[in-house]
Amino acid sequence: MARGFAAALDECLAAMSAGESLEECLARYPQYAEELRTHLPLAQRLAMTPRHQPRAAVQEAAWQRFRSQADDMRLGRRPPLSFAWLRPLTIAAVLVLAVLGAAGGTAYASQDALPDSPLYRVKLFTEDARVWFTFDDSRKAELLLNQSNERTDEIMAMLRAGKPISGNVLGALRERNARA
Known about the structure:
8 helices, mainly alpha, 2 domains, about 180 residues
């Protein structure tokens, strides 16, 4: 059925180009009359539309670029260095810097955190990281003793404020004393 309509459309277009009227074509194909009534005027208007011709200078410049690239490919020349890979690398670097900045800001904000603060675990983690990256045993012992003194100061501050002392503070104090 679709092929029949396409053939009828082609035949009517040819007949109308030769001077036949729309009504005569529709009378010849009554089974497709409704579809032909919408398609034929549109096809006629499209046929009358002038073909687009690109400007000669633009077309010549495009062909020149094409020939140049074809010559380069034939001769094995490499295209100029492309920095397309730089964008994903830049995005990744910015993301890494943002994460490191956020982590550093959180670590800095946790320096004065007391055991009842949500940042206290971050404070303990940063102190542990400092110990992990200290390779001199005497310096490591000194660092652990300083952290032990800080746990004692935190316990005293909590007692003065009338707050209960949580087990993680006492555990951190014992652990630092044992490691020192």
